[in-house]
From TrEMBL:
One of its GO terms (biological process) is proteolysis. Residues 133-279 form the Peptidase S9 prolyl oligopeptidase catalytic domain. Keywords: Membrane, Transmembrane, Transmembrane helix. This is Peptidase S9 prolyl oligopeptidase catalytic domain-containing protein. The keyword Membrane applies. Pfam families: Peptidase_S9. GO terms for molecular function: palmitoyl-(protein) hydrolase activity; serine-type peptidase activity. Gene3D superfamilies: alpha/beta hydrolase. The chain crosses the membrane at residues 7-26, 329-353.
Amino acid sequence: MAGWLKALAYGAGGVAVAGLAALVALQERLVYVPVLPGLARAYPITPARLRLAYEDVWLRAADGVRLHSWFIPHSPTCRGPTILFFQENAGNIAHRLEFVRLMMQRLQCNVFMLSYRGYGESDGYPSQKGITYDAQAALDHLAQRKDIDTSRIVIFGRSLGGAVGAVLAKNNPDKAAALILENTFTSILDMAGIMLPFLRWFIGGSSSKGPKLLNCVVRSPWSTLDIVGEVKQPILFLSGLQDELVPPSHMKMLYDKAVEHNRNCRFVDFPSGMHMDTWMSGGDRYWRAIQLFLDQYAPEVQSRDGSFKSEIAEDGNLLPYLFQTFVRVYPVLIFFAFDIVLVYFWSTLFTAVDFSG
């Protein structure tokens, strides 16, 4: 009997060790899912399918990896905010185009969509360090563009994208005006214990009470809870209370952590919102919450005459500025010229006519 129990114990231990080894070796495949089951890695559609004008933008991350992205302008004459959008962990940016189309319609904004390394047409393999480089490359590109208002760049991340966005906002307090987080987790360490309950005894984030013996083997911890307290920009938290993947308590914990050091935080929850459909189930209230946040923290920057910042300040081109100035001043010049001619005419007339008798 003792022999059987001993063999059973050894067998269980072997299975546990093998399972743990597999988790360590394959962890990136569990966190990052560039290709959905049954679908190709390629984009199924482009923005053109939704009648959106767009620009293919190719970037180089700091470590040399080539990245693909889409810049989708609202319109040539619209100088609204620019949303730098970071997607969830599964699929590619094409799967978010319907959301982006509605966002542009409701918020009158431009959108920049980045394909993480290993996703879509981007090269490389996903990792926390690598995706952090990718996000920085995207923001640096936007900060140098001449066709947007660079003072109104807003980072928007959903789920994994929220973790990416939080790190980027923390590292760039002067380049991003605000941060929006939707259905984001406190950390991958905490999510591991939720997805695989037996791991919660060995892996956990800063809020976990377990021994955390295996935290050191996790290569993509994405500890958003530790980061969000250091973000200086205003933050909007959008939480779907029916989220079936990330417990809504994670969003509340992130908000509570952020508001300790940042007064410019807003929390909005949506009773019927699930992980991927909060933007649909939230309806008008969802978009109104974002619009009010943008109006307050990424407002339209106007000059003294009520117009947008002049093009001369952006690209050094004098011609548009001089033309606009001429158009404004021309009617005034005509009026004064006519007035001078009229005064001269009457003065000449009175001088020529003898009224003495």
